[in-house]
Amino acid sequence: MRRAVGVVYLNLHSFLFFHVLSLCLGYSPPGKPKLTSCRSPEKETFTCWWEPGSDGGLPTTYALYYRKENSDAVYECPDYHTAGENSCFFNKNDTSIWVNYNITVVATNALGSNFSDPVDVDVVYIVQPHTPENVTVTVMEDKDGPFLRVSWEPPRKADTRSGWITLIYELRVKLEGEEEWEEHRAGQQKMFNIFSLRSGGMYLVQVRCKPDHGFWSEWSSTTYIKVPDYFPRETSVWILIAVFSAFIFFILTWILNLKSNSVKHCLLPPVPGPKIKGFDKQLLKNGRSEEVFSALVVPGFPPTTSSDCEDLLVEYLEVYTPEEQELILEEGKDLQEGCLKSKGSPSDSDSGRGSCDSHTLLMEKCGEGEGKEEKHQERAQKGKRQQKHQTGWEEGDVSHTREDVLSPDMSEGRVKTWPSVFSPLPQYSSRPLDHQGSLETARQLCLSDSLFPPPSTSSHLSYNAKEGLALGSGQQEFYLGKKQTHPSNPQSQPRWHLQAHSDFNISSMDRKQAASGLQLPGFRSTEYVEVQRVNQEDMVILQPLFSSSCQRDGHLQIGQGEDYSKVKGVDSGNMLLLQREVEVKREEEDGDRYSCDIQDRVTESCYTTSTAASSQVTGKPTSCAGTAMPVQEEMVLAANGYVDAATMLL
Amino acid sequence: MFSLPVWVAVLALVYLDFPIRVGTAAICAHGQECHAPSLADLFDRVIQQSSRVHGISSELHSDYEQYFFPSKNHIGKRKCHTYSILTPADKENAQRLGREELTEVILRLLGAWGDPLSQLHRSMTQDQNQDFNHYSSNKALEMSDMVHELRSGVTKVAEKMKLLGVISNALGYMSSPESLAPSSVSSSYERGDFNSIDHHDLLYCFRRDSNKVKNYLRILKCTTLPELDC
């Protein structure tokens, strides 16, 4: 008895010792396991998994026990391995549908065991099938475009054919690179169509299934499908719209192009260009700056007394013949237009046509082609005068008078030639040489014009003169050209232009031309030209010298003497070389009226013009020397342009 | 005497109401050749109906579980009153059973649940938890009606199958469906005092049985007409 008690006591002790020792060492009974899930893939078998609790540091075993509904028999899991670790697999024989299973897991280790919470399972409600199989996606063609046909098969184990299990399917599609899937319920059918595809896109398709009461399967493995390139129907509509819009756009552009000018005027009003007198674009482009600037210099501005005289003289282009009067009037107008300033000179008291009238009238009354020789720059341009002469002669030009000493009176068809009084032109030192030369040459030309009045010759002369004048600066050309465009008043207008021409830039005169101009054969009549004055610009203003035989009938008997009306040429010193001629013959025009007063003021024939202070009398044979100085001094440049007591303005 | 709109309204009501009441009879009126629904159509209708019944029963059961029984260990000792009806518990057994027996089982199940569902509905409407029961009693009523319709539908299917020679005429239970209900069940139901726990048990049992019915019908269909959706 004692031994039994002792043994029991010993066992108890050892047991307790063992437990205490285990506890001291940190061991413990196993933790409570937990049944995580039970699943049946085809409603014929099912598997339960559990989660073991802590093992307490000791090796722990797990056991699953179950009880069926309405039965008290406890069974243990038939298969712990088929489904893996911590699982229990119930095969077909052990599986009953519509029967409630009460399942418990027990964890056991050396120190004890632990029961899990029981779980009731009805297999019919835990069905989770496998993924659908044989997912195939094909591209099919339709009238609207291609579409995808997805087809699949139920999972192999699920017996849908006998109707034992009914599955509904779901598929999802997305484009490669996108994040959002597009899901579609397919019901019980095993085929599905997807429309509205992107041309050339790569699509991903997945399918899954679920029994009518159960859990969704996993998504099947992705199936890739590439949609071929096609032309969507909506794009064709857009293309039509685009083409139409382009067409409209082109039409509008064309219309705009047609009306571009008006549109431009509307949107961008043209900037008014410079309207500067004397501004020549061509000169600006081609010429030098000095030429440009000199072109801008307007003669007679700011007006001075001398220029007044010139201007006034300009107005003296009046002719008192009936036709001439018309011309006078015309020219008078022109004169007034061109006259920058018409100041009344002391000697001028005329009002009607300007202060220059009186002398002009006087001159005209002489009927001779005597005119005051004015050395306007414009006048000096013989060529212009030539033009005037030409047409004016035809018309019975009259006026070209006092300004143009050299301009002959013209009756119809007849050309009057002025007696030319030549005086060697003084050099203009203050001037640029070219100016002088040009001026002189022009004068030469003018003079010669008077010598050779015939229209033909005059035309020729004028042409030559024009040429000569035209040489050099383009500005001159410009003016010449202008003058030619006034057929109505060729005389006046050239004159005007001459006057307005502040700078007479015949830099390089062709002397030959001038000479040729001078030497035109034909009628010769000489005029006496006296230097009326020299204006500010060192222009020698010549006036015809009238002998006392100024007659009304137009015959102007030229005083004997030397005829210096012929301009031989312009020398390098910008001196107008006058040629002495013996014969003086002058033609007159009827109706020319020249002021006989001029004769009174006739001075000696020989005059020279000089620039600035130096009055040089060149020792040229053709030029009259010696008398230049006193003559010059005697010259008075009246406002009207008459040189009475000539004092050369140098 | 009545104005035109009134006549129009009356006529509209009449014509609208007519098809609803007449139903399929209008199609076969006046001696027209009337096509009775095919077996496939019948099966589809029946299966749809059974599916709907099962859905409602599941909803009701889950409602009860949410509201009244958070713990799910209640089920333990329940015994459904239809446990006496032997039903195949797996696929092999079901396939082994044959069409006639399967049909019989279905009909038995449906017959066994006619009265209990009516009583359930009555009991629910009388329950103290008005909020819940008001919503659930409607479902119970609908469920009860549908079970009745389903039973008549399955009967028609059986007749059709007999007509087609699919099943033999050796079915005796069809004549007396009332005898199918186990006596124990009817006795317990006659007590008439159901409580919420009883409701829950009842719903649990019915949910399962409706699932059985649906499943058996599908098996029947796929066995009889294998080409359709099986």
Automatic annotation (TrEMBL), chain A:
Chain ranges of the Fibronectin type-III domain: 29-129, 131-230
Chief location of this protein within or outside the cell: membrane
Cell compartment(s), UniProt: Membrane
Compositionally biased intervals (Low complexity): 342-358
Keywords: Disulfide bond, Glycoprotein, Membrane, Metal-binding, Receptor, Repeat, Signal, Transmembrane, Transmembrane helix, Zinc
UniProt-listed CDD domains: FN3
Keyword field contains Amino-acid biosynthesis: no
Biased composition (Basic and acidic residues): 365-381
SMART domains assigned to the protein according to its UniProt record, in alphabetical order: FN3
Membrane topology value: Single-pass type I membrane protein
Annotated region (Disordered), positions in chain: 338-402
Keyword Transmembrane helix: yes
Family: Belongs to the type I cytokine receptor family. Type 1 subfamily.
Listed name of the protein: Prolactin receptor
Gene for this chain: PRLR
From TrEMBL, chain B:
Subcellular location: Secreted
Signal peptide: 1-25
Chief place of localization: secreted
Annotated GO CC locations: extracellular space
PROSITE patterns to which the protein is assigned, alphabetical: SOMATOTROPIN_1, SOMATOTROPIN_2
Molecular function GO terms recorded: hormone activity
Record-linked SUPFAM superfamilies: 4-helical cytokines
Keyword terms: Disulfide bond, Hormone, Secreted, Signal
GO biological process, one term: positive regulation of receptor signaling pathway via JAK-STAT
InterPro entries: 4_helix_cytokine-like_core, Somatotropin/Prolactin, Somatotropin_CS
Family: Belongs to the somatotropin/prolactin family.
Name of the protein in its database record: Prolactin-like
Organism: Myripristis murdjan
Gene expressing this chain: LOC115360488
